[in-house]
Amino acid sequence: MADEFEKGLGGLETGPETSGGVGPEPSFETEVEHPSVAALREEFGDAILRHELHAGDEHVIYIEASRNRGILRWLRDAPDQRYDFLADVTGVDYGGGRPIQVVYQLWSIPHKRALRVKVELPLRSLEVDSVVPVWSTANWLEREVYDLFGVEFIGHPDLRRIMMPENYAEGHPLRKDFPLRGRFSRAEQTRRALSYDLEVFYTPQELEILKDRDWERAQQRAKAQQADRGDFPDDREDSRDPRDEGVEAEVAEEQE
Question: What separation, in Å, do the N-terminal and C-terminal C-alpha atoms of the chain show?
Fold first, then answer.
């Protein structure tokens, strides 16, 4: 039992191991008809890559990533389609070197039907056109996919992190290659958090509320100790975590 427990903790520091190759994926391709599938194939031909059926009634269409905006705009505007509600934009990383998927969940209010559209992006080229010009609600949704998966949305009006801090240096947390405890040690994460200026994250009104709380006192103590000693209390040679050595360079290289 103890050995199994230790094995279960194995990925906490390093993240999941990547497989030597990508195995065969299960096929969900279907001949079940959907009102939009035939119309899409007639309109866009080979840009419609495949049609799958999941959970009995969830239709999924894979399209060429380079044509996503035009196809999705047509799905919104064509009278027989009218997918006027973009319910979600999200990402999926299955790991093992597979492409990252960008998923568009659509709903047609006039026709009362759903369609899920996917594009697949190779890890070496994580970019696709933004659909903010088609649905303005895509703005924050695409920012979340950018933040957590690293997908660049070309033409997005304000592409920046939305959940993690702008100066977050550990990568994209929902990627399968992201260690469960982050790329930095706990000591390094704490050191970075305490070194940030509160003005970066809080409004003046919020700072008034925070000024007498533990966070500000802890930050002041840490900065005072750093000024006196030139390091943080847990930053002595005998307590440094070897994972922090050169980690910034590795993260920067991965993000290029």
Answer: 42
Helix (H) or strand (E) segment spanning residue 219: helix 214-229
Q: Which amino acid is at 176?
A: K
pLDDT digits 0-9 by tens, 89-104: 999 999 999 999 999 9
Q: What is the spatial distance between Cα 163 and Cα 53, in angstroms, rounded to a whole number?
A: 32
CA-based radius of gyration for the chain: 23
Which helix (H) or strand (E) is 46 found in, with range? none
Whole-model pTM? Answer: 0.72
More confident residue, 255 or 48: 48
Going by C-alpha positions, the residue among 57, 63, 66, 59 that lies closest to residue 43 is 63
Rounded distance, CA 201 to CA 216, Å? 13
What are the φ and ψ backbone dihedral angles of 36, each rounded to 5 degrees? Answer: -95, -20
| CB count in 10 Å sphere of residue 155 | 12
Distance (Å, rounded) from C-alpha 180 to C-alpha 202? 27
Extract the runs of DSSP E, i.e. beta strands, from 55-196.
Answer: 58-63, 85-93, 100-108, 113-121, 127-129, 152-154
Q: d(Cα 48, Cα 64) in Å, to the nearest integer?
A: 7
92, 100 Cβ separation under 8 angstroms: yes
| Helices and strands (DSSP H and E) totals, the chain | 9, 7
Q: Give the Cα separation of 166 and 112 in Å (integer).
A: 39
Task: Return the closest-CA partner of residue 162 out of 138, 183, 180, 141.
Answer: 141
Residue 158: partners with Cβ closer than 8 Å, 6 or more residues away: 139, 143
Q: What is the largest CA-CA distance in the chain?
A: 72
With a cut of 60, say whether residue 163 has pLDDT above it.
Answer: yes
Q: Do the Cβ atoms of 168 and 180 come closer than 8 Å?
A: no
